[in-house]
Amino acid sequence: MSRNLRGLSARRDLTDSLYESIAGVSGDDDNARNENLKAIAGEFMTGDAAILSSSTFYDFLRPAHSGKKVFMCDGTACLTSGRSEDVRRSLLESYREDEIGTMTCLGHCHSNTAFLVNGNIRLCGSDADPSSMSIGSNADMPALLTPSGDTGNYWSLAEKWTGRTDDALRELEASGLRGRGGAGFPFHVKVRSSRDAAADRKYVVCNGDEGDPGAFSDKWLLEERPHAVLFGMMMTGIITGADTGVVYIRGEYPLAVRRMREAVTEIEKAGIATGTEGNQITRFRFHVVEGSGAYICGEETSLLNSLEGLRPEVRTRPPFPAVYGLFGRPTVLSNVETFANIHYILEEGGAAWAAMGTEKSPGPKLVSLDGAFKKPGLLEVKMGTPMRTVIDELGGGTRYPVKAFQVGGPLGGLVPASRIDDLTLDFESFAREGFLLGHAGIVSVPADFPVIKLLEHLFEFTRKESCGKCFPCRLGSARGYELLAGAIEKGEKIDRQLFDDLLETMQLGSLCALGGGLPLPVRNALQYFAEELKDYFTVREA
After folding, report:
1. Main-chain dihedrals φ then ψ at residue 379, nearest 5 degrees
2. What is the spatial distance between Cα 388 and Cα 428, in angstroms, rounded to a whole number?
3. Is 100 helix (H, G, I), strand (E, B) or coil?
4. Is the full-model pTM beyond 0.85?
5. Does domain 451-538 fall into CATH 1.25.40.10?
């Protein structure tokens, strides 16, 4: 069924996007809205059920969302900081309770006071620039934080590499660039696989929907380095033979959407990426798509389904996107930070970029520091840097006692403060010690914040954001939340064996890292904070 729907959507490609047609339908009147959706189904020759199912998946497309006037952040960093209630109280001075909505993360974890109103981010109780934050690095010449001059520098470099695709691919391979979205998959393998795949069309897709609460590096790059991202996508397309680049940006980042569209318009006016005949640079084209509120679209196959107008559930793999991606064509899909690094690699050389890291984790990594740090903001850190250096020197330490750091988003490891000296900032160190580097966003857990409340939050987050396709994630997250909520609110003891079985089922049976990744921080908590949690669990006698 999905392949048939994919084929129908592909007939119009992105020039008349099914997803964007669905996203454009809104309103408080359910009947009128449903009639408009049925009209779209007829236009695209798809079933009413498929269109209605897709539209109801997204938070921002539900009628309840349209009645809200202001949205506050309910991400992990804002929760643990204790500022969420302060923001709500402040908003209630100007808005009714039913006019205040929530969004998963607004990407201002460094302030913990952000809210969205009229398509703009504002800071509660402050007139400061919402984009202001500390910027730092321990690299001699940062690959991403150093401005690259005027935009023409990017595209003159692209001209140098046009016709030298084999050499460009060798530089990517020499760099050892691994995906910066969390999984750390070698980027050049995706590129080579897509290049070698035979197809009439190929695509490059930038995943700007990775919205791990606590990680705002992608948001910053989209807003402040848009041409670096576009350059990386175009060069990937030139190497693979793709002629279209799609930037899918989460709706919680409205400024990023505007900045990327402005950058695309700017280069089109300069005669670059116009989609017209000529060389590879002119033939390439960009399409910026705004997401509609679904964390799961940060998973690559869910994102592809979303772009096709399908219900954005996770696909089973294989086949992988590099050979069967957008509209069933070969697609290189990677995250914002990965593409943004390609400019430095092709300008300075893959070896120079790799030298800012370790043998197995080459290059630098962007790190997001939340509002608990004395220097909250963004760091570009050489891989292999001791975590103590990151936290105490580059980050300035924390403003109050912290007992743990959740690194890598809600699915990342929960690192107790006592283990910081055992870690270096790289994929291997975190994996070896039972944690996960992921996106490298760092969320601080204050000494007085109950770990049991953090676990409840993580299960609630997963329950809310699950695509529902596989029952270990859909039912496991709901049951886990019920158990934890019962323990907190009613004093009901959780059967530890049952809870461990639940975690194992989610880890082994889930189709993607949402359900499969949640057990990691939960097990970290059970291991390192056993004394704090013991009163909430009961252990059966042997």
Report:
1. -120, 145
2. 17
3. strand
4. yes
5. no
Helix (H) or strand (E) holding 302: helix 300-307
Q: Who's near 53: CB < 8 A, 6+ residues apart?
A: 311
**Residue 52, pLDDT above cutoff 90:** no
Q: Report whether the peptide linkage leading into residue 318 is cis, meaning its omega lies within 30 degrees of zero.
A: yes
Q: What is the pLDDT of residue 182?
A: 73
56: its two tokens: 């109801």
C-alpha dihedral, 399 to 403 to 406 to 407, nearest 10°: 70
Asked whether the CA dihedral 132, 65, 211, 373 is positive or negative, the reply is: positive
Contact 372, 387 (CB under 8 A): no
3 state DSSP class of 474: helix
How do 120-123 and 331-335 pair as beta strands? unpaired
CA distances from 85 to 74, 90, 91, 449, 463 (A): 10, 9, 10, 14, 22
Task: Give me the residue label for tokens 């989609």.
Answer: 275
Distance CA 390, CA 380 (A): 10
Instruction: Write down the CATH number for the domain with range 365-444.
Output: 3.10.20.600
> Alpha carbon of 299 to those of 9, 295, 317, 334: distances in Å?
20, 8, 12, 10
Place of tokens 């490298």: 440
Give the residue from 294, 274, 77 showing the smallest Cα distance to 207.
294
User: What CA–CA distance (Å, rounded) separates 155 from 229?
Assistant: 12
Q: What is the pLDDT of residues 326-367, one digit of tens each?
A: 999 999 999 999 999 999 999 999 999 999 999 999 999 999
Residue 542 is predicted with a pLDDT of 61
Token code pair at residue 196: 């070698």
Alpha-helical runs (H) found in 44-117: 48-55, 63-66, 76-81, 84-91
**Can you give the residue ranges of every domain in the chain?**
2-56, 136-353, 365-444, 451-538
> Residue 16's pLDDT is what?
85
> Confidence band (pLDDT; 50, 70, 90) for 534?
very high
DSSP string for 387-430: HHIIIIIIS--BSS-EEEEEESSTTSEEEEGGGGGG-BSSHHHH
474-515 per-position pLDDT tens digit: 999 999 999 999 999 999 999 999 999 999 999 999 999 999
As a whole number, the mean pLDDT across the chain is 91
The structural architecture, per CATH, of the domain 136-353 is 3-Layer(aba) Sandwich (3.40)
- Tell me how long the chain is: 542
Buried b (16+ CB within 10 A) or exposed e, 424-433: bbbbbbbeee
What span, in angstroms and rounded, lies between the C-alpha atoms of 208 and 260? Answer: 11
Q: How far apart are CA 428 and CA 418, in angstroms?
A: 19
Asked whether 451 and 524 are in contact (CB, 8 A), the reply is: no
Judged by average pLDDT, the poorest of 38-47, 53-62, 145-154, 418-427 is 145-154
5-32 per-position pLDDT tens digit: 676 676 777 888 999 999 988 655 778 7
Residue given tokens 């607004």 in the structure block: 106
186 conformational bin, left if phi > 0, alpha if psi -120 to 50, beta if neither = beta
CA pair distance 418, 51, nearest whole angstrom:
51
